[in-house]
Amino acid sequence: MSDDLTLAAEYVLRLLEGEELLDARRRLAADPAFASEVAWWEARLGPLYEEFGEEAPSRELWSRIVRRLDQPGDNVVTLKRQLARWRAAAAGAAVAAAVLLGLQLRPDTPLPAPAPQERPAAPLLVASLVGKEAPEALTVAYRADTRELVITPARVEAPANRARQLWLIPAGGQPISLGLVASEGIQRRVIAVGIARRFADGGTIAVSDEPTGGSPTGQPTGAVLAAGNLGTV
Predict the structure, then answer these.
(1) Under 8 Å between Cβ of 27 and 107
(2) Residue 101, pLDDT score
(3) Which of 79, 104, 205, 226 could lock onto 131 through a cystine, CB 3.0 to 4.6 A?
């Protein structure tokens, strides 16, 4: 597994902290290839988040952590080494989970021969949107078999009384609204069948500046802040 694919997996699994997290966010905004890696993991591992709820650590676990920290020695170095091993194991587990779920990994990832499938996995379409004049930067991934759209904002800024709206622009066609984009957090939505058919034609994904609540006309009314072409991953 490449270093970028591992880093993208760690970012999606929320294992990065401090400077590593900031560096990953900067790359997400400026490096379309890395943004595609993140979108690839989000589309495949995202459904797993919905299957497991949050659970608070027990008091007994916290007591064990405190006891370990009270022991003599360089605890900081030891904990950092343990964290590095845990992160590596978690990233490896993500790959294993993808294999067990029958997901198609990238061609450059060495894996055992996959089990025969009745039909090939649907292609994942990805667009990396980076503004030339505006600060907006986000990644949009679309999976045809589930009609699921995954929006990962790296930098989305909307002033008061304004909104950011996402559009699909088919080749030679009029823009089609894909809804509003929040400034933070991974956003998932299922696209209507009629709109999903237009994704098969490819095209461009764009984000525009609109009034609060979105365009009142069904077409972009403000400036196009960022755009990117759809491509298979």
Answers:
(1) no
(2) 46
(3) 226
Instruction: Find the helix or strand (DSSP H, E) in which 208 lies.
Output: strand 204-211
pLDDT attached to residue 93: 53
CA distance 35 to 203: 18
SS3 state at 32: helix
Q: Which CATH architecture has domain 124-232?
A: Sandwich (2.60)
> Residue 164 — φ and ψ, nearest 5°?
-115, 125
What's the pLDDT at 111? 45
pLDDT along the chain (233 residues), means of 10: 73 79 81 81 68 64 68 54 53 51 49 52 80 84 89 88 93 91 90 87 90 92 91 77
Inter-residue contact 18 to 44 (CB < 8 Å): no
7 with 23: CB under 8 angstroms?
Answer: no
Q: Are 208 and 182 in contact (CB under 8 A)?
A: no
pLDDT for the residue numbered 118: 53
179 DSSP 8-state letter:
E
Q: Are residues 125 and 229 in contact, defined by beta-carbon separation less than 8 angstroms?
A: no
Amino acid 179: pLDDT: 93
Q: Which residue has the tokens 């490096």?
A: 31
Dihedral sign (CA 177, 180, 186, 187): negative
**Which residue type does 197 have?**
R
Residue-range domain boundaries for the chain: 3-100, 124-232
Taking phi over 0 as left and psi of -120 to 50 as alpha, with beta for the rest, 203 belongs to left
